[in-house]
Amino acid sequence: ADLEDKAEAQTRCPQIWYKIAIHVLAVAGEVDGAEAMWRRAISLRSGEAPGRIAWPSSQETPTVWISGLQSSPLWTCSHWPFVKRLESHAPAILKEVLGASDYFTTAYPYLTVNGSWHHFFLYRGRDWNQDLCAKMPLTCRLLVPELPTKPEVAPTTAYNEEVVIFRSQAGASVGAHCGSSNNVVNLHLTLDGSEGASLRIAGREHPLSDGHALCFQDSFFHGIEHSSTGAAERISLVVRVMHPEMNNSVYGLSPRTDVADVAAWDSELALAGEVQRLRKEYRLLAEQLASSAELQEPRSVACAVAHGQQSAVERCQLDAEG
Question: Which pTM does this prediction carry?
Answer without folding.
Answer: 0.88
